[in-house]
Amino acid sequence: MIVLDEPCFKSPGAFSEQDARDELGKVLASRTFQPAQLQRRFLAFAVEELLAGRAHLLKEYVIATEALGREASFDPRLDPIVRTEARKLRARLAKYYQTEGSREAFCIDLPKGSYVPAFRGMAEKPAEPLPAESIAVPPPEPLAVTVPAVQGAAARRPLPWKFAYGLLAIFVLAAAGAVTLNRVSSQTAPGTAATSDDASIAVLPLVNLSDGSEEFLSEGLTDEIINALTQIPGLRVVARTSSFRFRANAAGTKDIDRKLHVRAVLVGSVRKSDRRLRVALELNDAANGYHLWSGNYETDAVGVGKLPLEIANAVTNALGMASARGEPGSPQTSALPNSDAQEDYLRGLYFQNKFTVDSLKQATEYYKRAIAEDPSFAQAYAGLADCYALGRPVAATQPLEVIPKIRAAAGKAIELDDRLGEPHIDLAVSAEYEFDWATAESEFKKGLELNPGNVLGHIWYAWYLSLTGREEQVLTQRAIAVRLDPVSPYAVDALGHYYFSVGRFDTAVQQYRGSLALEPAFGLTHQDLGDAYLFEGNCGAAINELRVANQSMPGPRRMAHLGYAYGVCGHQAEARQILCQFLARVQRGSVPSLAIAEIYLGLGDKDRAFPWLQKAIDERDLEVNLKGDPRFQLLRSDPRFNTLLRRMKLG
Fold first, then answer.
1. 417, 174 contact by CB (below 8 A)
2. Sign of the torsion angle spanned by Cα atoms 650, 531, 241, 394
3. Which of 184, 320, 323, 540 has the CB geometry, 3.0–4.6 Å to 296, for a possible disulfide?
4. How big is the CA angle at 66 (ends 64 and 70), to the nearest 5 degrees?
5. pLDDT higher at 587 or 371
6. Same domain (yes/no): 385, 406
């Protein structure tokens, strides 16, 4: 390894943008860099992003796809090209400044542990470092956890958000019931069926060949097929979040196999014409692309409800799987709804996946219409309960307002079909809002017993375990979620939060970086990464990440994390400015009480923090994680802390 004889030292503000571009041009044109095309592209891209004010986006995923030619499916956990080229680039820069560039006034440096270049004077001495605030946390004991295998598979409708520190995803809805349909053709390639040891599948989103207004059919049917397959015992089905990242026309089966680790991939298309629905499907071996099975189906609007079940049966047979519960080879289902109710249900499912305040309202209305058209439609009640449970995190609906609505819709769904697992997860959430921890645990366990592939259920159950102080079980649940949803940034982020909660901040940082590699603009992971940096004592990196979080996903909860960091890092003026803004808005109900408490904690003002924490508990804010949030660690020796625990019935 080549090391500079004369180190480069930072001289803030000494070099203009033109100086930087001139130096970059000299480096790229040098004999040292001529044979190193990847490193030239790496350096040029990184410098241009820095000069454009986008240094915070210089992450592994962005560099690999924008500068190094990797495809959009790039996963830094599997491909170390960025780290490898960064090491080579540092060595080549060192060689250049030892030889051709030895007379330059300043140099370009790529600091270790970062992909953001720096411009440094060649002969200057380092400036005195600014004092860094640090938070003393006792070193955690290493953990060894065995994650149990999961039968069944994925949640049907994961969403790009998280509830409390868990992640929001769409609840799994049960498949619609049975009705007569016309199967046009079905073929299985001889001798190619997978064995039971290879029992895993990813269902890619069906391609909509109709006009854009029918997209709800292709997405809704994909969700229903995934759900029907999860009812097959022993079959692992990749969750929606991960499978929807691979479009049939954008990824080869080998790439899917490498990322999702599945035996087979189901792809297909949907076309609607004159009230007839035509579905064409192919099942391919993920490892080699070999054709396993194909099927073409045609039905009218009445028969849409049976399509997912028929398809699941055919796929099961092609994979050589044993029959599911109920009739031979057929997953169980509740009674078939009428065609109008089925279509409105699929529209509700489609809009819920948009995951905005407005789309959630639309989904709620479509589920209500489906219920009005068919009052015996259990899945529509389950979807309605999902929307109510999501009201708090998506639309800031008050928990006390949604508790009775969740209970009514979920209870009716279970009354109509007691095999649905998702309404039990909804009931667990409503019980948490009332601090009825025993009921919450019972409902979580029941829901996951009925549908062990419910990713959201595992993530929310993990949050329940954290709230009740059972961190040793949290890792198991979050690791199961990642296994079911392997390329979901939300599941990866949730796993990172476990490490944050137990004080393993360096491991949390790596996990959050993995989440951002999958989705670089995910604001909530930028927030979590900023928190982890803060507890590592790296104030500069923490504040930078928290600012990015506020830019990409503005709101008082993210701003509160930034205000807390300002206070901890000694920037009291900035912290108090945010606090004053919050206090001016609190009467309008637009600022959670927890947000104000957090800033007081960052400022070290425990006396003012406690009343706001008490108010947050009265608001049923489940982000008040007294046992699992390191920010509350300094309060635990205060007698008032036990009062808060008793108020949450955790004493």
1. yes
2. positive
3. 184
4. 45
5. 371
6. yes
Q: What letter does residue 115 receive in the DSSP assignment?
A: S
pLDDT above 60: residue 238: yes
Query: In 3-state terms, the chain is what percent helix, strand and coil (to 5)?
Result: 55, 10, 35
pLDDT at 430: 94
In DSSP terms, which residues pair with 208 in a beta bridge?
270
* Whether the predicted model's global pTM rises above the 0.90 cut: no
Structure tokens that stand for 296 in this block? 């073409």
Place of tokens 């095999």: 419
Confidence of residue 353 (pLDDT cuts 50, 70, 90): low
197 and 103 within one domain: no
Asked if the structure places residue 561 within a domain, the reply is yes
DSSP 298: E
Note down the domain range covering 315: 175-328
State the Cα–Cα distance between residues 417 and 376, nearest whole angstrom.
9
For residues 402 and 416, give the distance between their C-alpha atoms in angstroms, rounded to a whole number: 21
Q: Closest Cα partner for 416 from 341, 469, 504, 308? A: 341
Q: Which of 94, 106, 146 is nearest to 473 (CA)?
A: 146
C-alpha to C-alpha distance for 9 and 11, rounded to whole angstroms: 6
Number of structural domains (the chain) is 4
Task: Please check whether residue 225 lies inside any domain of the structure.
Answer: yes
* Cα within 13 Å of Cα(151), Cβ side: 8
User: Does residue 117 sit in the same domain as residue 249?
Assistant: no
Say if 310 falls within a structural domain.
yes
* Burial degree of 26 (CB within 10 A; 0-12, 13-18, 19+): middle
Q: Name the residue type at position 530.
A: G
Report the Cα 76 to chain-centroid distance in Å.
Answer: 16
Over residues 334-344, mean pLDDT: 70
DSSP SS3 for 329: coil
- Measured from the Cβ of residue 140, the count of other Cβ atoms closer than 10 Å reads 12
> Which structure tokens are listed for 4?
């500079």
What is d(CA 128, CA 241) in angstroms, rounded to the nearest whole number?
47
Q: How far apart are CA 509 and CA 505, in angstroms?
A: 6
- Looking at the fold, whether 391 and 295 belong to one and the same domain comes out as no
Question: Taking all residues of the chain, what is their mean pLDDT, rounded to a whole number?
Answer: 79
Are residue 314 and residue 343 in the same domain, yes or no? no
Q: What percent of the chain has pLDDT over 90?
A: 31
Same domain, 116 and 60: yes
- Residues 324 and 338 both lie in one domain: no
The tens digit of pLDDT for each residue in 620-640 reads: 999 899 998 999 988 999 999
**SS3 annotation, 179-245:** CCCEEEEEEECCCCCCCHHHCEEEECCCEECCCHHHHHHHHHHHHHHHHHHHCCCCCEECCHHHHCC
Residues 1-60: tens digit of each pLDDT? 223 333 343 343 456 777 888 888 889 888 898 888 889 989 999 998 888 888 888 888
